[in-house]
Specification:
about 10% strand, 13 strands, disordered C terminus, single chain, two-stranded antiparallel sheet, alpha+beta
Length: about 525
């Protein structure tokens, strides 16, 4: 009978909504009722039944046996359902729909192949910067790989991997995860939700179109336990703006339609039929369990037999190796005995020669040691000689420097002695009364007035109290240095020198009354090198 769809609303974590059949599947992502801040930030929002609970009372969808993979059509049906739910979320945020296509799924298959090659773990993200993906994009996008970039990846591991499931059960699980990623992703920084709502590439540019690939990667353990893990991969691909559209056209080939819930057709449940089906399924499970037990027992037996056979072979190999080793030991003993006998014979026959050789060898080694010591001593002596020669050269240089300094000092001493002698002679020839206590005919070089060193000059104030600068004893009258007809006597006692301007005073002197306020005489004597002043 046909049943109209009755999409279920999400329940709370304490009271999840039951999903009995395809008719109950919602086609929109809705925030769960009563969702608290704590639930929005929970780490495990994908626990078994937080908002939707699969009961499957009227489930007629295909059964997927444990350890087997979905067919291409079953995976496409899941992808279409995921596309419908994600686009409903994008519509709520005013974004254009994401597109899926057969071509984009080729990019998703390249992601799975890369993960298998790299051994990527179920919970780890893909290395999207690899050259393999660049090659895949180039192939799919018609060589315009730079017009398409990977815009992010969401993934989660299936919680239904170790038992038989139905396609409806996988859809409920998909609904559960997408609801959590969209409304309870706080623990993950809302990164899953942001990928669902992606509409840019880089930092700011708008994208012409966002595409999504959807893949299931199976991780089988390779044993006979049937245990496996399934990872759901959502990869987003963004076509850049401003391109010629070639890449977008290629990525749109074989576009997917979205999932539409039309209800389903089924046979009404008959109690007897239902019981028969249940009995059959129970018997089938018992057979499967018996087959599994048989397989394990057979494996164990085969393993035991293989181990026994391997042990026997190992023992045989060890015996052969022991036999060979014993034979080698016997041969080695024989060779050792022969060598010992040959050594004894040679010692008896060549004993004297051996002693002489050993003595000569000892003498040679002693001489070699002496020669080595002598060579070392010679080297040390050469080094000492070199050091002494360097010291001698340094001393010679220092002696020469000291001699040069001595010669300079001697020359200076001779010059100083001459200077002293000249000064002494000049002092002795300076006059009969060097103290100038009485009348003295020696004229004061600083006093242009003739006569004694009297403190008055024609009645004028020798201290220049009259206000004139030229009324003192250094009076230069009319520009002449010779007043009163008296000649200036040369202090060096050179009688033939008639220089009358001993102090080279100019026409104006500021020395009013210089040296004339002394109670005694002031005699200045000048020569070419020295100046002496005697003041009483």
């Amino acid at each position: 009978m046909h049943h109209d769809p009755t999409p279920a609303k999400p329940g709370s974590q304490l009271d999840p909504t039951n999903i009995d059949s395809e008719a109950d599947l919602p086609t929109e992502l809705v925030e769960p009722s009563g969702l608290t801040d704590e639930e929005k930030n929970q780490e495990y929002y994908a626990s078994t039944d937080p908002w939707y609970k699969y009961t499957g009372a009227n489930d007629t969808s295909a059964v997927i046996k444990a350890g087997t993979q979905l067919t291409a059509q079953q995976q496409k049906e899941l992808a279409q359902y995921a596309l419908t739910l994600i686009n409903s979320l994008r519509k709520q945020h005013g974004l254009k729909p994401i597109l899926m296509s057969d071509t984009v799924q080729e990019l998703g298959n390249a992601v799975v192949n890369l993960r298998v090659k790299n051994g990527t773990e179920a919970g780890a993200h893909t290395d999207t910067g690899s050259a393999e993906l660049d090659d895949a994009i180039s192939k799919v996008a018609g060589g315009n790989q730079y017009d398409v970039i990977n815009g992010g990846e969401n993934l989660y591991g299936s919680i239904l991997e170790n038992s038989d499931t139905t396609l409806l059960q996988l859809k409920v699980q998909l609904l559960q995860f997408l609801t959590g990623m969209s409304f309870a992703d706080g623990h993950w920084g809302w990164g899953h939700r942001d990928n669902f709502l992606s509409h840019t590439y880089g930092s700011q540019d708008e994208a012409d179109q966002v595409y999504m690939s959807f893949n299931l990667q199976h991780y089988l353990d390779g044993g006979d336990t049937g245990l496996n893990t399934i990872t759901y991969l959502f990869d987003f691909w963004v076509a850049k703006t401003g391109t010629d559209g070639t890449a977008e056209k290629a990525l749109s080939n074989g576009a997917y339609s979205e999932y539409v819930n039309h209800g389903y057709d089924s046979v009404e449940t008959n109690p007897a039929y239902t019981q028969a089906v249940n009995d059959y399924n129970q018997a089938l499970a018992q057979v499967a369990s018996a087959n599994k037990a048989y397989t394990q027992a057979n494996y164990a037996a085969n393993s035991t037999a293989s181990a026994s056979k391997l042990a026997q072979q190992t023992l045989a190999n060890a015996k052969a190796q022991l036999k060979t080793a014993q034979a080698n030991l016997a041969n080695a003993k024989t060779k050792l005995a022969n060598a010992e006998k040959a050594l004894a014979d040679a010692t008896a026959q060549y004993g004297d020669q051996l002693n002489a050789y050993n003595a000569a060898k000892a003498t040679l080694e002693a001489d070699q040691a002496k020669a080595a010591q002598l060579a070392k001593d010679l080297a040390n002596a050469k080094q000492a000689l070199a050091d002494n020669q360097s010291a001698i050269a340094t001393s010679d240089a220092k002696i020469k420097s000291l001699k040069d300094q001595l010669a300079q000092l001697q020359a200076k001493l001779a010059n100083d002695e001459k200077t002293l002698a000249d000064a002494t002679a000049a002092a002795e020839n300076n006059g009969s009364d060097t103290d100038n206590n009485g009348n003295d005919s020696n004229t004061d070089p600083d006093n242009n007035n003739s006569g004694s060193d009297d403190n008055h000059n024609n009645g004028s104030d020798t201290d220049n109290n009259s206000g004139s600068d030229n009324n003192g004893s250094d009076n230069n009258n009319s520009g002449s240095d010779n007043n009163g007809g008296n000649s200036n006597t040369d202090p060096d006692n050179n009688s033939d020198n008639s220089n009358t301007n001993q102090d080279t005073n100019h026409s104006r002197s500021d020395n009013g009354g210089s040296n004339v306020n002394n109670s005694g005489s002031d005699t200045n004597s000048n020569d070419s090198d020295h100046s002496f002043s005697t003041i009483s």
